[in-house]
Amino acid sequence: MSSSSSTNTSAKRAAAKPAGAKRLAAKRIGSKSLVATPSGKKAVGKKTVGNKTVGKKAVGGKTVGNKSVGNKLVGGKSVGGKLRAAAAPGPRADFGAPIAGFFAKQPAPLRAILEELRDLIEAAVPDAESSIKWGMPFFTIDGAMMCALGGHKSHVNLILSGSPSAYADPDKLLTGAAKIGRHLKLTAADRVPRDAVNGWLATAAMLARAK
Description:
There is one protein chain. The chain is an alpha+beta fold. The chain folds into two domains: 24-78, no CATH class; 100-209, Aspartate Aminotransferase, domain 1, CATH 3.90.1150. It is built from four helices and 15 strands. The protein has a six-stranded antiparallel sheet with strand order 10-11-12-13-15-14. A hairpin with a 4-residue loop joins strand 12 (144-151) and strand 13 (156-161). Helix 3 packs across helix 4.
């Protein structure tokens, strides 16, 4: 083929190629990159590192933000590109222990309230079993929760298990409306409403026996 014929063929191919299909080389302006688009327009995207997006996604297998390459990282750690779930906490060392140690650790004002409540529980429901669960004294009947005692910085709670609607409370002394029960918040031993507590304990024991 002659050189003039080859030149004509190349010219025809160039003329047939749409102008909009011409590719634009990617350029970098400052910290942003200009990316060529099929239409011939230039688009300013996110920052790039080796043509990979840096933001909340990982580059080169390293975690940036809260995501990892190929895997989302939620509450765990990424090891070798694989997601490892966070380990569940184990049981407390005092789980199932006798409740006497709990009372001994409380400051005197709160200990007086807690001991008053313990005496009322043991008198009202002699067959209730007690042990430490989640750092608090729990009282159960045949394994079913009846009530618990909680010690806080400046008050204690009597926690009554069962539906909130099951406990008569004309004086509005109980708080909480969760399905697991209600709370009596106390700050002084001489303010324990003994008659009301006895009634609530009877209800709690009845609900526990019915489980």
